[in-house]
Amino acid sequence: MRQATTGLLLVVSGPAGVGKGTINAELMKRHPEIKMSVSATTRAPRPGEVNGVHYFFKTPDEFRKMIEDDAFLEYMHVFGMNYYGTPRDYVFEQLAVGNHVILEIDVNGARKVKQAFPEAIRVFIAPPSLAELRKRLEGRGTETPEQVERRTLEAYTELKDMPSCDYVIVNDDLETAVRQLEAIVVAEQCSALHNAEVINTFLGGMES
Fold it and tell me: Which of 31, 59, 82, 91 is the most interior residue, by most CB within 10 Å?
């Protein structure tokens, strides 16, 4: 008898600059069965982007039709311009073949995914401190001082979402953070929630 073979949906959120992308990339490098979710968008492809790999590129009409068909776990309309969303079919196809899927998303999107798919595992990546987060943002050299200040204030708001998550990882050391995320995957694969088939095998034929 085998344990759960259906994949897990890991919804990873946290402030900008906290290191979500680096952690997720390292995890996927070590575990080829872990995939990054591919989002749908109405924005035009950028040079080098491949449809179905980086994004599913849709026309506005196609995207709105997908909304009508309830084809998204979550979606958003950014600044009244482009749509972005997480297609259900792609995620569920990967889970069905035993792959784990990482959805790297903001806290508002993460809440929507949890509502649409309660089995999703919410993981919040937190900085060691707001001061350290500010230092990392400044170190990237991609934002003005005003933008760094705004992102730091946004981070404080996002940190309030931690109690609603299933797990919290403090990214003080990359190797430790990756191993902790690996441990979450192992633990969830052994959880009763994800082993209904095993439980039913033993208990299904027993009289109450």
Answer: 91
